Structure formats: C-alpha cells, structure tokens
Amino acid sequence: MAAVPVAAGERVVSLDVLRGLALLGIGLMNVEYFSRPLRDMGQGLDPSLPPVDHALAWLVYVFVQGKFWILFSLLFGMGFAALDERARVAGIDFSTLYLRRAAGLMLIGLVHALLIWAGDILVTYALGAVVLLWFRDAEPARQGRWGAALYGVPALVLLLMAGMMWVSPEPTQADHSASEAARLALEKARRAEEVVAYSSGSWWDAVLVRGRFFIDNLDETLVFEVFALGIFLMGAWLLRSGAITDPAAHLRLHRVLRFVALPAGLGLALASVSVATRFDWETDGARALLAMSLMLLASPLMSLGYLSWTLRALQTRTGARMLGALAPAGRMALTNYLLQSIVGTLVFYGYGLGLWGRVPRRWELLGVVVLFAMQVVASRLWLSHFRFGPVEWLWRAFTYGRFPPMRATSALTP
C-alpha cells in the first residue's frame, strides 16, 4: 500500500498546541545566542548584564532554558509513535518510510546549521530518528523505562561526580602544559572568530565559521544524542500509553506530573541556581558540574509538568479557546523554527541589520514574543489556503517520493 499523509480527522490538536508552545519557548531560549557566541553555551548567565536584564535572563534560565527543547523532543518521540501506529494499521513498510523522513530532516538540519544558524537541533533529531527504529517493537512501558534510563542515569552519574568533587575537593592546580595552553588559546581564538564573523562579517564569513563550529562540536552532539534519545523514547511511551490522547483515563499519572514532577523539578532548578549561575569550568569545575547536573535533572520534570498542565487547560472551554490559537503555528513548527533563525540572524548579524551586542536582553525577549505572535497569525492565514507549511511540504515530498497537493481544498491534511 502506498504511504499517504495523515487524514484531517487523525490529527491530535493537543500535539499541535504543544508544538506551538514549545516553539515560543525555544525562541525565548535561542534569541540570546543570536547576539552572543555559541561557544558561550554552557557558561551560564552573562554577569555583565544590568539588573533588569539579569533578572529576566535568570527567569529564562530557570523556567525556559532546557525545558522547551525537551518538550519539543517529547513531541518528536510522540510523532514517531503516531507514525508507527498508522503504518502498522495501513500495512506500510514503516522503516523505509521513516528512514527517508529522517534523511529529509538531516538535509534540512544541515542547511540550517551551515547556512542559517549554528545552534541547530534538527541534525540531532535526524540521527536520533534512526536509533529510535531499534526500539520500535518495544512495549510502551519498556520504551518509557529505556527513555528514563538513557536520560536519567548519565545525569545522576554527573551529579554523583559533582558531589564527590564538592565534598572532597582536590587542590586547584592550573594546567600549564603546552597542550592545555594550546587548547585554551584555540578556544579563545575560535570564540573571537565567531564574534567578528557574526557581528561584522559577510554571509560567507558566517558560513565558514558555522562549518568549523559544526565540526568542532560533533563529539558534544553525540553525547547530547544520548539525552535526546531518552526524551524521544519517553515521548513515544506517553503517546502509546494513551496519556496524551486520553488524559482523562490517566488522571493519576497527570496528577503526579503536575503536583510532584513540576514542583520537584522547580526545586532542583532553584537548587542549581543557588549553587551557580555562571560556570567557571577552569577553576571551579565542581561547582559548575553540580549546578549543571541539577539543572539536567530539573528540566525533564518541569517539561513534563508543563505538558500535563497544558493538556489540563485544553480540557476547559477557556483554555481550549486561548491555547487552541497556537495550533496553526504548531502545525507549521518546522517552518516557524527555521523562520525564527532567519529573522534572528538577519536582525543581529553583520550581513543583516548588524545589531549584534547592541540590543538589551529585555528587548530581545519582547522581540521574540512579537515575532511569535506574528507567526501565530501568519500560520493561521497560511493554513486557511494551504495544507502544509512550505518546509513541511518539501519534507513530505522527500519522505513520500512525490509532491502532495498543497491547496487546502484537498481532502487530506498533513
């Protein structure tokens, strides 16, 4: 049987709403690094910010950063599970179809990472999609356990290491070896290269720097892949268990997510920022590792709480009306994600408006909210005429081997 896009009645609107919400959170998280070197990721808050901007950055760090890529990743795992279930019902060769889908996402991710913005996450998703196939036939509960283990065990190991370093610190000794000096000098030079290329260089200068950043961070991408795969599997478990499509039948689970997981995650996040908000890995690695590992554990708990509260709100008339407005943006999440990067780089980079380092944090965040509001309106208008976002349409064409009808008058929807 030939594979076809999903019929209109088969869409789960709550997933589109959650994608829209995740899109806003990712924008609030990413905007900082449209005007700051990506090599500063993992360094914590910028201590030079004025008080108001520092307070806003603190709020983003505690409540947003790390939480919404996890929400997006949970949704990616849910999408995998939904496609798998539909393929089984239709008798479709799912593995071949999904590998084509992953290859298409990889191409889009490489274009994004190299030609638009280096902070891409799509390449990670594409790689994870291939590994997900190994878990296709696992029972939902087993997928959930694997997911929790792949994310939680490394995070707990890091926390244990940090605790041991914290309780029994070794005397700090600077490494004066030639190799370490060369490494630090290279890192400093690469960071300075980023600043020059992005703040005042041409588009091609930025492409070259993005390429070097991509290669330099391949090892970190593979490490991050383990955490991402764990979240994908938890998302697959949530969908296959029915907790997303029929939350009323899983009241106990959702109460745990709302009233246990979310407060526990927030407590861990507050513990993290009480340890450190600026990470000095060279001279105080124990403090930095402790703060980072606490936040690693906090983020999925808070994300799951956000997800559950959103589903609860969607069960009310007011919540369904207000949050339902996000669904069109969620249906076009891939297009809107890329558009955020295009707008962000054109605003801040030298080959655009050149506002690198000149916009206060408060205006950056307000700009994201305004852009997202525009995306919500534009997505609704677009989908009143067309069935897919433009990038979604190309992705589906690559996946299914033919261009699907684009006009909204067609009987099928994505």
Automatic annotation (TrEMBL):
Keyword Membrane: yes
InterPro entries the UniProt entry points to: Bact_Transport_Assoc, DUF418
Parts of the chain that traverse the membrane: 17-35, 56-82, 102-135, 147-167, 222-239, 259-277, 289-311, 332-351, 363-383
Residue intervals of the DUF418 domain: 238-401
Domain of life: Bacteria
One Pfam family in the UniProt entry: DUF418
Stored PANTHER family: INNER MEMBRANE PROTEIN
Protein name per the record: DUF418 domain-containing protein
Organism: Lysobacter soli
